[in-house]
Structure of Alpha-galactosidase:
Amino acid sequence: MFYFLVFSLNLLVIFTTHVSVNGLDNGLARTPPMGWMTWAKFGCHVDCVKEPNGCISDKLIRSMASVMVTEGYLDAGYEYVNIDDCWSEMERDPVTQALIPNATRFPDGMENLSSFVHSLGLRFGIYGDIGTKTCEGYPGFWIGNGSASDYFLLDTETFASWGVDSIKVDGCYQDIDLFDRIYPRFGQALNFTGRPILYSCSWPAYQVYVQREPDYASIAKSCNLWRNYNDIELSFESVLSIIEFFAQNQADFVRYQSPGAWFDPDMIIVGNEELTLGQARVQMAIWSILSAPLLMSNDLRTIKPEFKQLLLNRKVIAVDQDPMGIMGERVFNASDLQIWVKPIEPVVKGKPSFAVALVNTGVADTFSFKLSDILTGKDSATSYSIDDLFGDEPLNSPIELSSNLTLKVGGKGDARMVKLIPRDGLFFETLTNNDLS
Ligand SMILES: *[C@@H]1O[C@H](CO)[C@@H](O)[C@H](O)[C@H]1NC(C)=O
Ligand SMILES: *[C@@H]1O[C@H](CO)[C@@H](O)[C@H](O)[C@H]1NC(C)=O
Ligand SMILES: *[C@@H]1O[C@H](CO)[C@@H](O)[C@H](O)[C@H]1NC(C)=O
Ligand SMILES: *[C@@H]1O[C@H](CO)[C@@H](O)[C@H](O)[C@H]1NC(C)=O
Ligand SMILES: *[C@@H]1O[C@H](CO)[C@@H](O)[C@H](O)[C@H]1NC(C)=O
Ligand SMILES: *[C@@H]1O[C@H](CO)[C@@H](O)[C@H](O)[C@H]1NC(C)=O
């Protein structure tokens, strides 16, 4: 059924100023980090007899790292290979108290695995917990029992000696009242190692869960990225609920994000059978609009070609990795359609380009709206050329600010994404000698 929907966009105009807060100064994550992580797909699978190719092990990390290089993911920007929970032994080393990897599943140790990952040109990431135990019950960084002491210096030294490049620090088995003090303290311990280590904090996620207002200004000074909502699950409902959470808080969040300091809506689950290709486009579109980390959790060894192609889409990745690092916003929300807009480069004569994403949640397959309506309050030009980012079809170009943009979106649970580049002044300029020299 072809159903043409026209609507008027006057209901939602949000004015936000982008106040750049200084993020963590360790030189890392100037654009949102990209890579791969075990959790959403492989969880805490530790039975290597039952799942020889899917248990958290040296073998899993090596095989995934190899595929990331041979199949072009590294070339596209995915550089971190991250092990989540369930990698360590159940007890620390009785003599040194250091964390030790499970000897059966990581027989050559973490330094050896990390060297292998580095030899491929990738970076190596690991996981831990600011409490007495990780969420799955493995040893945490905190001693506890009223002693208020911790293993932060010992553990960060251990990670640095293994050549760890990134760490996700969870918040299970810890008193939430302590988070505002101990997450920065762990960050200092990381800094003391002298090794630049990307710091991912679950700090605000636990606070949001108990309806406590996170101190994002402090979080952005201590962490390179931070989770502040529920774990993503392998379902489109989960993707949509995360999108809704970010949309509802965008006016607040947009102020705290800057190069080096990113909100993390959690892993990219594209390529798992639970998402259709259209639903996968929705996740890629909105994560890119948010300038979110792109940390895939899937099986790259068996992924279908169309999902691989989506994950490797350079135009969409460029939106995510835009150097300005702005968190885009939802400018229209109805039961059948969401429209998201993000200012990106190139900036032409002072006017930014825009990435525009349409998320279809209804029955129509074509939407038409006045361009000026979705760019209200933004620094807009009078005329744009259009590029189709998922590469579906050629678009009529250019378009005036005062005219309608009409886009087909592939049905319910699909997304369309275009880039608008200002044309103002581009066509009547004469080249000067300076331009030519
Ligand atoms: C290491 O992992 C295996 C499962 O692969 C488990 O049987 C064993 O108990 C673990 N060892 C320790 C010391 O945690
Ligand atoms: C890793 O371990 C393997 C097997 O024990 C060994 O052959 C190799 O030399 C080690 N590599 C490094 C970099 O230590
Ligand atoms: C804390 O104390 C309890 C009771 O004495 C003990 O069972 C537990 O192992 C201690 N935990 C740690 C992390 O030392
Ligand atoms: C440690 O912090 C200082 C001050 O913010 C920063 O200049 C330096 O790059 C940091 N070093 C590492 C290894 O993170
Ligand atoms: C956006 O629209 C959906 C569907 O109508 C609705 O459930 C949701 O509450 C809306 N969100 C906001 C912030 O208005
Ligand atoms: C253009 O979009 C507006 C709503 O923004 C709508 O009222 C109008 O009918 C549309 N015009 C066409 C030709 O689709």
Remarks:
- The mean pLDDT is 92.
- The radius of gyration is 23 Å.
- The chain has two domains: 34-320, 329-436.
- The longest helix spans residues 236-253.
